[in-house]
Specification:
This protein is of the alpha+beta class. It contains four helices and four strands, in the order ααββααββ. The relative contact order is 0.24.
């Protein structure tokens, strides 16, 4: 996935976290596709992992980062669609 593809995908998502990520990319932030190898993965696989992490945070009193609950819900809604996970650093 090239930068412009990631920007396009983020621009279609109107969540606060997607908007923040898009602004960071447009300002020159670096990004890295995960996992290594840059292959798309089923949203269901990511949902299994992130839903567990989110629930564990709630169960142990850790405050999740803003947008995590919304992202977990979107992964669940995406079902078996192939998705990419990217880390954006600015």
């Amino acid at each position: 996935m090239i930068r412009s593809d990631l920007e396009f995908a983020l621009a279609r998502d109107h969540s606060l976290s997607a908007r923040a990520a898009l602004l960071a990319l447009r300002a020159g932030a670096d990004y890295k596709l995960l996992p290594e190898g840059h292959q798309a993965t089923s949203a269901q696989e990511f949902w299994d992992i992130w839903a567990f992490r989110h629930q564990t945070m709630l169960d142990t009193g850790v405050t999740p980062r803003p947008g995590l609950a919304e992202a977990v819900g979107k992964l669940q809604a995406a079902g078996v669609s192939l998705v990419h996970l990217a880390k954006i650093t600015s």
